[in-house]
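Table S2 (continued). Query chain:
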Amino acid sequence: MKKAISAVFPETWHGLCTFHIMQNAVKHLARLKSDNDSNILADFSACVYEYDDETTFEEAFSALRSKVQNDAWLGGIYQQKEKWPACYMKNVFTLGMRSTQLSESLNNDMKNYLKCDLDIAQFFTHFERAVASKRAKELDSEYNARKKLPRIKMMAPLLIQASNLYTTCIFEAFQAEYERSMAAYARPTEKPNEYIVGIGALDGKSTMEEEYIVAGDLSNQRVCCSYQQFERIGILCSHALKVLDMMNIKLLPEHYILKRWTREARCGIVQDIHGMAILENPKIDAARRYQLLTRKFFTIASRAVDFEECYSMVDVVLNTLYKQVEDKINDSSNFH
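Corresponding output:
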């Protein structure tokens, strides 16, 4: 997979599924005991999810390996460290996903419709039901995203704007960040327009979360936060929203509104990372049409084959249809 992904998708980042990594960790580490009886599995989990700084990760992982002598699995997973720890994924646009969620969801849906004793005809019948179910859910989600307005907890201009733009799911995540920004404090650094921002605990305790550095640019209405949530997920974090508010910017700048998170995500032209329009691949379009026609022909054949009169009728129609298709193709070729 590593070689294929780098060859076929050279501009992508290959990340490993953290769910499967933790499943393998349970198999290899749960049985191990350290000298001081610390929880090896918990230490490894912290290396996966908790450390935003590479130096801190290296120190923690080194301490973990010192507790476990000669474990080959730990050595092997460390060799691929750029693909799974949080600190190495800070600049990767992951949309917040770190596991193979789509694959697992599809597998689970298929189990509801498929059984191991189905023949090929029954398989496709049940497969079509699974696909139809997925498409129905997609239509429901599309309707909800376009028609249902989310609940706004406070009538702030930024939230009102976001509620009209974002889908309900994304707006709720954005609103949570906005609420956190209300509990944030900021103090200036020695550099102009740069702040150290932290979030006060929302549970009434006196503890504070980790602090991050945020630089503001009022002329361009931009903020740059060391937490880098926007770069990873496409939603501004509470630290960045705090500094936007300090710059008296009360509406979300257009460059911080990703179309993919809005109600109009399916409208208009899709662009690549260079801003160029992405045109439909003719081969992909042809493959889609082929699948559609194959499904229809298969359905007709499976119904007609048991009745001789129906079989003869389909055979005659297909022979006539084949001649018409060939004539049409030849006419088009001569025209061009």
